[in-house]
Amino acid sequence: MITGRPRAALAAVVTTLLLAGCGGGGSAAGGPTLSWAVDFPAHWDPVVQGSGAGFRVLSLVYASLTEIDENGGARPGLAESWTYNETGDQITFHLRPGLTFSDGTPVNADAVRQYLERARHQEDSALDGDLGSIASVTADGELDVVIGLTQVDYQIPLLLGQRVAQITSPTAAQDLDRLDQWPVGAGPFVVTELVPESHVVLEKNPAYWDAANIHIDRVEVHDAPDAASVVSAVSTGVYDLAPLAPSQAQAARAAGLDVVEQPGFNAANISLNTNKAPFDDPAVVEAVRHAVNRQEFVDKITFGLAQPTTQPFPPQYVAYDPQSADLWPYDPDRARQILADAGYAPGDIRVELVARAEDPQSEIIQSQLGAIGITVDIRVSPDWATPFFAKDLALSWYSTTGRESPVQTLTAHFGPEGPLNLSSPATPPGFAEAVALARSTPLDSPDYQANLQAATRAGLQSGALVFTYSLPNLFVKNPRVGDLPRIPGQVHWTGVRLEDEL
Hints:
The chain has 16 helices and 19 strands. By secondary structure, it is of the alpha+beta class.
């Protein structure tokens, strides 16, 4: 077992790093500079950062083993290619030759091996649950990483993308406290200054494998301001790019700014725990399914910018199942009748909804369930994640940023150990078999989409989740910033140019 380290920021470490000017890499002072306001990641070590959207910021510094294309398919990253054995239970990644991390350490097979072993076994790893298909990792020479699998799994090239396999320098990883405060990778940029909860300055990394297509010389990352002040800050040139709340989209357009609707794997849901009352009664779950008016969420939460969805994937994505588009249509009269037939009178059912903060979504859920006779009491708990992931709550709601591997998304939501399955270990009948078939189908097989959609269809029989809407990733940018690549769920700087250079 690899020993973890404290997660608190170490001021002395940061001060030392700032004075030392660590990070290396070339400088391109005076070239095109981008100012990006974004929520800072909780950690700069991707092994412990793990969840949320922080991996998008970390991708400035770290290159991943693989990438995804605009259709969500796997494409080369640090690995220029990969090959499976005949039985599909072993995959070899072939790394690009001659690459180095920004501290000069070679990007070789042993570096990748060390990262994956750390992600699998480190005590505080946030990625260990994602790597259950991996039985062994070995370095075969300088450039071949051989991964033995516990099962046939053709999802590995998707799995080892930006969220899971942002490879760290093994030299830097010898001091995990330091790495968490000063990231060292082989990505498009190198950190030259980092002040926690304030700003980070990065310069273009000439050793990045695709440096020829990085046209920004310097990035300044600032902690995102309050949502209400974002439009003003971008309008006045304080920032070039920032996350945008749906409520601010109209103001951004009126100010002459670009509203970027970046495709994503985002999906919001109402989470039910079928191991706890009242949702241990299938009739109550069925009634709730028909009580949900998804369009109200779209209108009131996203101001019409989202799409209603009944599943964890946006429409048009390869894993989206058209047959499951409207399994439980909004029908409050039917919901009330289901409860009456099960012996419940209005007001008989009372349940607590726990959310991390005050949010209109809680009030919409309260109102919609109240309309069918279920009383919902809202409790705000900043420590919401602890009881949620411990499966101690009866009712909550959640929004995800998705995964590059659709099978990983499905198992996270519906699997017996799925972190997003509030009813864990409950699993829908037939789900395990459907997922195994999808996992064992090569990505280029003509059967892949059908098998994947069948796995989605099986998962949606779960009573644990009622999906509501799918919102693209929203950003506001200064028109001086060129179009971002439309890579789902990610932010890429490949090919992006600033007006200074156009």
